[in-house]
Amino acid sequence: MTGLELIRRIRPTHPHLPIILYTGNADALDAEEVEAAGVRALIRKPVDVAALGALLRELLT
């Protein structure tokens, strides 16, 4: 199962959950498909820990 497939399964039961897609293959993703799935943010591997922390604070407050 891909991350987008997982998001599509979770979204109906948890519509307010802010979803961050963490991927090493962002270039292969369709931006419209990612947005339609309800992804609030996209983080590319390798992760910048400071940027991840800032993003989590933003999405969870």
Report what the structure shows.
With 61 residues, the protein is an alpha+beta fold. It has one domain: Response regulator (Rossmann fold), CATH 3.40.50. The chain has three helices and two strands. The protein has a two-stranded parallel sheet with strand order 1-2. Strand 1, helix 2 (31-36) and strand 2 form a beta-alpha-beta unit. The model has no long low-confidence stretch (mean pLDDT 90).
Distance between the termini: 30 Å
CATH topology: Rossmann fold
Low-confidence stretches: none
How many strands appear in the DSSP assignment? 2
Structural class of the helices, strands and pairings?
alpha+beta
Describe the global form.
globular
